[in-house]
Amino acid sequence: MGDDAGGDPVGNTSVFPPPPKTYEVFTEENVLWLQVLQAELDRSGQRESFRSMAPEDRRALQTQLLQDASDRDLDGTDDASKKERDVVLPDIDLIELMPPDISWIEQDGGYQLFGQRWPIPEATPTLEQLGIPRMFPPEPFDHAEALRTLLRTMLFTYYQLTNDLLQPIQPYEASGGGSVPTAASATESQQLFNSNATEEKQQENLEAAPVADGVADVTTTRLRDHLQHLETTVINFQYLMNQLRPVQASASLEMLLEEQVKRREEQTKALRDKCESIRDAIGKLSF
């Protein structure tokens, strides 16, 4: 907390928002009152309808039930004892302390959390549902081979993308139609990018050289296609990797158990060797 130049408090500058104030009502006293309320609702048979009531009606019923329970608890005591045990009813809606009804969540088929809807049971969308082309065969297929194929596709696409990015700008004859370089243009290209020329001279030649219409558009389209293909390949690769997560977890657990067994065997062998050495030492003792 601090003050700015105008003297106004800056406020909470934390990256994460503060926790909701709901936790402040979870006191021991309120939890005990909740237990009393639930017992009274069961006694009166209004437990199911209590949640669906309007907030004002629910608060009124809550106060009435808690007051009745308090009066029954004080029955048989004198006025002085009642005055000493003056009961203060909670001023909050105790329904806030009740856990959510799981059956409602199951009937609704999911729940909202942090602005996202989580279905029950949890379902992973397919590539077709996401609108992404599928780059591996349908089930059943060898996942390892499919991953290797996608990896080779990614590497080759990346190679093509890098190759296009590293291509120098090719000058063309203005009258050549902008599609096929002529022999003269090839000679001019060698002159333009002569390694013996200075950098300033090469830049001047490059700016003065005519470039065919549409060459930049074709190059941009090809680069965009490479990027799109690379992105699709990566998504397919990640999708297959996610399908193998259970297999990975099982293999990791198996490897962990094997390491534990191996370590236990080594400790057992060391203990037996130590016992054997102690027996030998005892046998060599002369009494």
UniProtKB/TrEMBL annotation:
Subcellular location: Nucleus
InterPro entries: Med7/Med21-like, Mediatior_Med7, Mediatior_Med7_sf
GO cellular component: core mediator complex; mediator complex
Major localization class: nucleus
GO terms, biological process: regulation of transcription by RNA polymerase II
Residues passing through the membrane, by range: none
Keywords from the named record: Activator, Nucleus, Transcription, Transcription regulation
Disordered, as annotated region: 1-21
GO molecular function: transcription coregulator activity
Subunit structure and binding partners: Component of the Mediator complex.
Described purpose of this protein according to its UniProt entry: Component of the Mediator complex, a coactivator involved in the regulated transcription of nearly all RNA polymerase II-dependent genes. Mediator functions as a bridge to convey information from gene-specific regulatory proteins to the basal RNA polymerase II transcription machinery.
Family under the similarity heading: Belongs to the Mediator complex subunit 7 family.
Protein's name according to its UniProt entry: Mediator of RNA polymerase II transcription subunit 7
Source organism (scientific name): Malassezia yamatoensis
